[in-house]
């Protein structure tokens, strides 16, 4: 069911007094498409129909903002919960009835008397995954968080020998979050058969397995995990599932990144010129990697490209990472080398641009092709576990994401304008993340200083 909160009347830009009702629009295929007025009143100039809230940047009475936004969230939750319980029996009159139940509960005594269900944390996480707008890639990342939370709950049950233990969002404290973080940090030990606790805790990974063998998590990974868990807690608070806010006093920390590294244009050309004719699969991987360095997309977007994404000599796509909240079409003109690679694979069966393998295999093959091509320049990287700098040959630390850095870093050296490069990479103006893709290297510094001559 599609659920929207909209207004149906406008007001002059200078009119900040008129109040109109917010309508809730419910659609489900051919069953119904209903516009139902609510009792929530708002000035048309204050309402953001796209975000379904009072405009974030408008200057207005804060109490009014909180009241309107809060009432919309409560009504949305009531309708969504009702739909989940009754989805098999909804009909054309259901939208009117569910709103009537919200405003006139006394007319539905039997339904109201039923005690409201108290959701435990993992149940709420399932609701969050089903209701919160996010891209497929982001949902996949949140599923990793769900599995580790499941294992943490199981860990507590085994440790305290009590199967009744459940994570309850209403009672979790900042100390509980700290204990959870410590488990995340050390979880890999329980999958190690040489560990003295292996036999006791081996159920963790047999009952809730991961797609990859568990490994030690660095601080940046833990920061990422807890940023996602905080997002989940905020969603639960915003939609009235809890009043608990343990993250108010819990420091998630900040991710730290080393100097960005990438192959330069000479190294890219060296890679493309290397003879892989005796290794057809690696030749394909080399071509795909070089193509990725020429358009700068993430690997998820690369794997989603089809022949229809090539439009008038350019590749056009919407980033999967932002498709739900801020969908923007990225258009990257294709240079002669990119067009040459496309022509080479024009007969690839189906809609895909290239014959692709699993992403993990693609990452491994990138290391191999760089090493075989003699691209072994030493680079300084930040060890994710120790957070100390280390030196490695570039092929040893390469991955598909280095293609994106190669695109951005080499373009930035040419134009030195983050907004111009961002128009091609998909970064919004002023993006903090942009700095992780390029470095103010020695050549750029010399160019800047020469301006003073």
Tell how many strands the DSSP assignment holds. Answer: 10
What is the N-to-C succession of helices and strands? Answer: EEEEEHHHHHHHHHHHHEEEHHEEHHH
Low-confidence stretches: 111-115
The order of strands across the largest sheet is 1-2-3
What does the main sheet amount to?
Answer: 3 strands, antiparallel
The residue fraction in helices comes out at 40-55%
Count of helical regions = 17
Shape: globular
Annotation keywords:
11% strand, globular, 453 residues, three-stranded antiparallel beta sheet, mainly alpha
Describe the fold and architecture:
- The chain is mainly alpha-helical.
- It is about 45% helix and about 10% strand.
- It contains 17 helices and ten strands.
- Strand 6 and strand 7 (about 315-320) form a beta hairpin.
- Helix 4 (about 120-130) runs antiparallel to helix 5 (about 135-160) and helix 11 (about 280-295) crosses helix 15 (about 400-415).
